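Exam prep: given the inputs below (a chain plus adenosine monophosphate), describe the expected output before reading on.
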Amino acid sequence: MKTITSVAALRQVVSLARTAGKRVGLVPTMGYLHDGHMALVEASRKQCDVTVVSIFVNPTQFGANEDLNTYPRDFPSDERLCRDAGVAIVFAPDNKEVYPEGFDTCVESGELAKPLCGGFRPGHFRGVATVVCKLFNMVQPDAAFFGQKDFQQCAVVRRMTRDLNLPVEVVTLPTVREPDGLAMSSRNRYLSEQDRRRAVTISRALFAAQDEFRSGTRDVQKLIAVAELHLQTVDRLQYLELVDSETLKPAESPLRRSSALCVAAYIGSTRLIDNVTMELIVS
Ligand code: AMP
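Solution:
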């Protein structure tokens, strides 16, 4: 496994692989890798010949009062996990490599970036779309792997890739969870022992609503109310919305299109997000 920090060196190695006819997969991450990330790596390993994992805590997707400076990092452990998983290249550029002096161009998503997290994290999806677009251009992968855990991010990236004709297949994989249901996240490490126990209420809420959906309920307010009941113990509910999976606009009752129930909530001072989908066959 190679650890590469410059775009020029990365391009050289990847273009050699591509000339040799190899399919290149990219797993973009902010590091502090867990089993959720590693599921993306595994999928890339299965579908591609060469897997590149990027590790970059992207400053432009953090707001002024967010956790950029305290975001958990453990590069040696990330490298170890990647090596053990058969990753070919860890791409770990520094801020200057990604955003050179005078950097002045962004990718701005439209409607998809407005609801859900977009309403509470202004500029977040501009940062995400910009860095993902740059990573696609730096790595030039055939496929890139993202987790459904960040549902809105997947929608934004998929649309950007289509709208800007980026020649990358965007693959989305299901959320990997702890045994009690909590969605794995690098930010879970912020939770105290007690908060960690309380955090399970978020996935419980979503699963309860999903069960209600599976037993035939199609009324949006009813589905939301089921989840809400469980969420009374969170310290602050930022949003709980049932949205159309494709447009991210509020779902309409009765549900006729595949939808996602998305939540952002604080447990203590830790903001956690999660979602479940409610699939409908559209005829
Ligand atoms: P991050 O390092 O948090 O920016 O995440 C990097 C990638 O891993 C994104 O595509 C995330 O959606 C994905 N990811 C994070 N947590 C999980 C999880 N629990 N299950 C599946 N994918 C995840």
